[in-house]
From TrEMBL, chains A, B:
This is Nicotinate-nucleotide--dimethylbenzimidazole phosphoribosyltransferase. GO terms for biological process: cobalamin biosynthetic process. Pathway: Nucleoside biosynthesis; alpha-ribazole biosynthesis; alpha-ribazole from 5,6-dimethylbenzimidazole: step 1/2. The gene is cobT. InterPro entries: Nict_dMeBzImd_PRibTrfase, Nict_dMeBzImd_PRibTrfase_bact, Nict_dMeBzImd_PRibTrfase_N, Nict_dMeBzImd_PRibTrfase_sf. Its EC number is 2.4.2.21. Pfam families: DBI_PRT. The active site is at 305 (proton acceptor). GO terms for molecular function: nicotinate-nucleotide-dimethylbenzimidazole phosphoribosyltransferase activity.
Length: 339, 339
């Protein structure tokens, strides 16, 4: 990060017409944005949420309540603007980029989806690896390509998002392996499991880890053995954004799994990440701690798609505008604090 | 609240293309908005933050670090658009209504400020009452008049805000009296007091309560003895908005004091209130609990002006748009959860 830009931003925060520090996290966010963009006054105008879709072979183990056909159905819903992320993106003035990273079912050929499909869904991680090492690398590279294309169009901040029936299962597996926590501590109810279903899901995840023996320190190994194509794509978006100096707002539990993979591959990428929100999924707090990131909002969301990232983008943009547009004590003729 | 509208909103939330409950607090907020507006699909388009300014005789006791001249200076800053609330209001598309409830110093005659000045600052509550009972009633009525005029212009949601050097002192006094908590538990550092200054502030507030003996159950008595003109104005905005069926987003610690007065006068007003954010001031959580309200965001703000309310307005608007604009399972052709 650009330390000079950060110092200038911090100095300016202290002469704006408010008590020093009174804008709390907004000040902190604006200063880090300055460091990421290398500008004393960061600019957030063009915004995008990249929503990556993929399917998961582990649904054969009945870890969720929704049929796999929902993944392509929701991709169509994104393209038509009817999903939650579309509404929130309209509200914050961001574009939604929908990416097919590995949907199992068919999608109409002529829809506005970025086609990066690695395969038609992953393997069943309870019985073997999710994908080959080459596919893991391909999924990350696809994410880098997608975010690079968006940055080339103009992009001051990007949010990650996901869609994939069953994807809290690989995400919990990644969380357990990379944080060292036990599976029962990081596994949640996803779209709404019963107590019995939750216990079954925990057993499936424990089995997936035992069968695959991923190396917690090796991001590619973890991704290929217990990951997902959209999780790899999200890791790529994060790495690509960081490499180009673009702030990236990480969404919830599935995006957090992508962030853990990205951080394992390039620890310095963490400095470019913001955590949009804290999800209801219990493992998300463990991910946040592992990444050293504090969520921007906590609205009890558990939807994914980039919905929590979108709120983080909005607040980051506001923090940058405050730094740019507020009057200083001198400009406004306001008396400063008595010493 | 309109229970039929709330039931319809809740039913619609359950058929939108997401797992039931996956949007957490956004769903809950949209349903209460439906009840307040009496519409199955609430509409939030026109928005305002009403920022009320007043001065406090208790500054003679040296409870803060900023000189009293800052109050009118900041009023000018609001009018010129240079304060934090102006920037955030531009970001969320809300108008800022600046009200002189009781500034001590002079303001230029020709500026765009609603003039409701009750007096040039309150009395020193460490030595006697803040104002007369008639002035307390006048300040509340002024708030009702201001919000009524704004509702007549078109207003779907309103946020409260404050400006007044020294006003965390009466707010902490009100918090202690109305919550029954001890003064040291509800008193904070305001704009940034040292440990020693904080201890002095606590003693001043204890003295104010001992000297005035406010009746905790009587909102007018509390306001007149240990309140402030902007706090009365805020109580009036809340009561006026509730009476007209307009949702009101309460800002931080000073607005919380106004909300406690409003609730003492009309407990049902609480159903129309949202809590925009949780302030750093330690008493704010106690106010939130007493009001039974959960903050929408927590960004470690301690500025007032309506800055926290503005974020709450934005998220409330988003929640209403989600309810209105998301596709249902049927519309989108998305399969529902297996039973």
């Amino acid at each position: 990060l650009d330390k000079t830009a950060m110092e200038k931003a911090a100095t300016r925060q202290d002469i704006l017409t408010k008590p020093q520090g009174a804008l709390g996290r907004l000040e902190e966010i604006s200063i880090r944005l300055a460091g990421i963009q290398g500008k004393a006054i960061p600019v957030i105008k063009t915004k995008a949420v990249i929503t990556m879709a993929g399917d998961h072979g582990v649904v054969a183990e009945k870890v969720g309540n929704y049929p796999q056909e929902v993944t392509p159905q929701m991709v169509l819903n994104f393209v038509r603007g009817g999903a939650a992320i579309n509404v929130i993106a309209r509200q914050i003035g961001a574009r939604v980029v929908v990416v097919n990273m590995g949907v199992a079912g068919d999608l109409p050929a002529d829809i506005r989806v970025v086609d990066k499909r690695v395969a038609r869904g992953t393997g069943n991680i309870a019985r073997g690896p999710a994908m080959t090492e080459a596919q893991a690398i391909q999924s990350i590279e696809a994410g880098i390509e997608v975010v690079n294309a968006e940055i080339d169009k103009g992009l001051d901040i990007v949010g990650t998002g996901d869609m994939g029936i069953g994807n809290t299962t690989p995400s919990a597996a990644i969380c357990a392996v990379m944080s060292g926590q036990s599976v029962d501590k990081v596994t949640g109810r996803g779209t709404g499991l019963s107590d019995e279903q939750l216990q079954h899901k925990i057993k499936v995840i424990e089995k997936a880890i035992a069968v695959n023996k991923p190396d917690a320190k090796n991001g590619i190994d973890v991704l290929s053995k217990i990951g997902g194509f959209e999780i790899g794509g999200i890791a790529g978006v994060i790495l690509g954004a960081a490499a180009r100096g673009v702030p990236v707002v990480v969404d919830g539990f599935i995006s957090g799994a992508g962030a853990l993979i990205a951080e394992a591959l390039a620890p310095q990428a963490r400095e470019y990440m913001f955590l949009g929100h804290l999800s209801v999924e219990p493992g998300h707090r463990i991910m946040a701690d592992k990444l050293g990131l504090k969520p921007i909002v906590t609205l009890d969301l558990r939807l994914g798609e980039g919905t929590g990232a979108a709120f983080g983008i909005f607040i980051a943009e506001t923090s940058a505008r405050i730094l740019a547009e507020m009057a200083t004590f001198g400009e406004a003729g306001v008396s400063e604090k008595a010493e």
